[in-house]
Specification:
HD_assoc_2, HD_domain, HD/PDEase_dom, single chain, 11 strands, HD domain-containing protein, 12% strand, alpha+beta
Length: 456
């Protein structure tokens, strides 16, 4: 008689070669079946870093490879917890290995709801990748749900509750989602590898050596503090150097304006996209089903953008060409709200030379906290990182580390005003004699990459 599905393991473990973790090890039949489901395979067709690949050309890796990586780190943590910190060994502070399967499924599926160019797409079409992840896990029509449901009744809902952070065991939730979790650890290492940016790396081996469960979640032994510091600094560097890169954001602004223009044109003439962009129609209508969402990926959108280059609307056609051919908007930093009237003046100059400022200018802000600690006055509580002393007592990371204390609660990032490169590049300025004075007036507002008040 065969074992129940939840206990079925592979006769010989399956491995996936991985540039970050060397091997991803799969031992459970349910995990292999989930990897082979159509909803997870779709993630092969969605880039992990979206428009960042226009800046870092190696960053072609997919959300599929990241999902496998998060699963692998979680699997290793489960092994460490069971080997060293099981309930049998350390009592109520320990790890219950019955939580392994729900943890591994949540780790593998945590990003399954991401769409093409996800954050930009979400903003324009008001989708929510986390809500869609939950829908994929809990909707009876998906392969993912059918596989999970074979484990036991209610198992899909258990996995979904890890994603929504309502699962009752904080050890499981924090392994997948906290300020130092399997998700972040994988994407920092993976994104650093594929972008070629060494400063995103940190000592994962050491972190896994010092990680441990306690009743309230996950902590790190005090003698591993420097490895955790290293991780925090890596995260800081990756946000500054990669995730908030001005050129990547310039491409993101083009993409957002391109989709926004399509949505505006659809309101005027719903027949416009019937001939080619049919998989996008439900989103232009803002009435889409889960099945329609799952048909979209980066390739589908890029195909439509190629078709849009031939459209009669000059703005849609031009933005599509700029996106496909990597013509990002240029930008200048600003940090003072009093500069907004000056930005409006500059938008007027952009319009004067023939660009619609709605589609060719933007204010784009990117900010993040490298590390946050619990503040009762804050409306948003993040799970803080706890260090564990030998006697079992806990110390919050920024209380023990001067380095982290210096970064804690400090937002990083900037605000930028984006505009067409033509405004400041004489090599591509058309009719220079006609608009020469306008270009010169515009350029007076920028010095060393930042907005300044021009001296007349």
């Amino acid at each position: 008689m065969s074992l129940p599905y939840k206990y079925q393991t592979l006769a010989i473990e399956k491995v996936f070669r991985d540039p970050v973790h060397n091997y991803v090890h799969v031992q459970h039949q349910v995990i292999l079946d989930l990897i082979n489901s159509k909803e997870v395979q779709r993630l092969r067709r969605i880039k992990q870093l979206g428009t960042a690949s226009f800046t870092f050309h190696g960053a072609e890796h997919s959300r599929f490879s990241h999902s496998l990586g998060v699963y692998e780190i979680s699997r290793r943590i489960c092994d460490i917890f069971q080997r060293n910190y099981s309930l049998e060994k350390v009592g109520p502070n320990g790890w219950d290995d019955k939580e392994r399967l729900v943890t591994l499924c949540a780790a593998l599926l945590h990003d399954v709801g991401h769409g093409p160019y996800s954050h930009t797409f979400e903003h324009i079409f008001h989708t929510d990748h986390e809500a869609i992840t939950v829908a994929i896990i809990t909707s009876p029509e998906t392969e993912v749900h059918q596989i999970l449901n074979r484990v036991e009744a209610g198992f899909p809902e258990k996995v979904a509750s890890v994603i929504t952070k309502t699962y009752p065991n904080p050890q499981v939730v924090q392994m997948i989602s906290s300020q130092i979790d399997a998700d972040r650890m994988d994407y920092l290492l993976r994104d650093a590898y594929f972008t070629g940016t060494e400063y995103g790396t940190f000592d994962l081996t050491r972190i896994l050596r010092v990680i441990r469960p306690y009743e309230g979640g996950i902590a790190f032994s005090m003698n591993g503090m420097h490895a955790v510091e290293d991780y925090i600094v890596s995260r800081y560097q990756m946000y500054v150097q990669v995730y908030f890169h001005a050129s990547s954001r310039g491409m993101e602004v083009i993409l957002a304006h391109l989709l926004d223009r399509a949505a505006e044109l659809y309101q005027v003439d719903s027949e416009l996209f019937q001939g080619h962009s049919q998989l996008l129609l439900p989103f232009l209508k803002q009435e889409f089903t889960l099945d329609e969402y799952l048909k979209l990926d980066d390739g589908v959108l890029n195909t439509y953008f190629t078709q849009w280059t031939e459209e009669n609307d000059p703005i849609l056609s031009d933005l599509a060409k700029r996106f496909l051919n990597r013509k990002p908007l240029k930008s200048a930093r600003f940090d003072d709200e009093t500069q907004l009237p000056m930005i409006e003046e500059m938008q007027g100059l952009v319009e004067k030379v023939g660009f619609n400022p709605r589609y060719y200018t933007a204010i784009n802000s990117s900010f993040d906290l490298p590390y946050d600690f619990y503040r009762p006055t804050s409306g948003k509580h993040r799970t803080q990182i706890e260090l564990q002393e030998k006697d079992g007592s806990l110390v919050e990371l920024s209380q023990a580390s001067q380095l982290v204390a210096a970064l804690a609660g400090q937002t990083q990032g900037d605000q930028r005003f984006y505009f067409p490169k033509e405004m400041i590049d004489p090599n591509i300025q058309n009719h220079y004699d006609l608009f020469g004075e306008t270009y010169q007036e515009f350029a007076k507002h920028i010095r060393n990459g930042a907005l300044i008040k021009p001296s007349h």
